[in-house]
Write a structure and sequence with these properties.
disordered N terminus; 33% helix; 3-stranded antiparallel sheet; 7 helices; 244 residues; 6-stranded mixed sheet
């Protein structure tokens, strides 16, 4: 079901539709595990019923049944992200968890939607990793501590950012895409070691460790690429969700 809650935003009040995770699958426009304002998801992210609803919506979105490892990553990775966003003052941004891009070619860990200073819709793609450290093998691959070779997370999220930069239909709203990698179990030094050196294709994509997430409110907003982003109104959220 859809609940209506009202919060202050920029000195005024606006009504935010909150999609209750266990139900409300009919009519959902976006393929994802959860969608809503950051503060609403933050309030329930640790509840078993919310995670069960996320699994149901994940399956209904065509992603299949989430495996145990996927559910475990939700429990471990979502709370640090939500906590950081709340402390950064980003509670009224729109958030999608396990967002499926139109066409189903990509699934993003998290996507933030807000409004920029000039009214452009700002999308911030967030790549979440539980890794503490890894070894960079070459420009686009890393060796994880468990012995698995993975795509370098910065290049992975850069590809997602590029998708949004080239995907917009001619009649769609103006978009600006940004990206950030969050290694919430890593120290600042471990996160810094993962950052590519001198790679223009991934310029402007920060890699944050757990220590970075404890920064002051203003600094944290800048690190998360959201310092100049305000809460989108319901019409802006609808315009984004209706892009095909």
């Amino acid at each position: 079901m859809t609940q209506q809650k009202t919060f202050p935003a920029g000195g005024s009040r606006h009504t935010i539709p909150v999609q209750a995770a266990p139900a409300g699958l009919a009519g959902v426009r976006v393929a994802c595990a959860a969608a809503g304002r950051v503060r609403e998801i933050a309030a329930v992210v640790g509840e078993a019923s919310f995670l069960q609803g996320c699994a149901a919506r994940y399956k209904a979105s065509g992603f299949g049944v989430p495996e145990d490892g996927e559910r475990r990553s939700w429990r471990h990775s979502w709370p640090p992200l939500l906590d950081a966003l709340m402390r950064a003052g980003m509670g009224d941004l729109q958030l999608y968890l396990e967002y499926g891009t139109p066409g189903g070619s990509r699934r993003l860990d998290a996507l933030l939607v807000g409004s920029g200073p000039d009214g452009t819709l700002v999308l911030v793609v967030v790549e979440l990793k539980q890794w503490q450290t890894c070894r960079v093998l070459d420009g686009q691959r890393v060796l994880r501590r468990d012995g698995e070779v993975s795509v370098h997370p910065v290049y992975q999220v850069a590809a997602y950012r590029s998708f949004f930069e080239h995907w917009l239909p001619a009649d769609g709203p103006r978009l600006q895409a940004r990206a950030v990698v969050v290694l919430h179990n890593a120290t600042a030094a471990e996160a810094a070691a993962v950052r590519p050196k001198g790679a223009p294709a991934v310029a402007g994509i920060p890699v944050l460790g757990g220590e970075d997430l404890s920064a002051s409110r203003g600094q944290l907003a800048r690190l998360l690429q959201c310092a100049d982003v305000r809460a989108p109104d319901n019409g802006e959220v609808e315009a984004f969700e209706n892009i095909r």
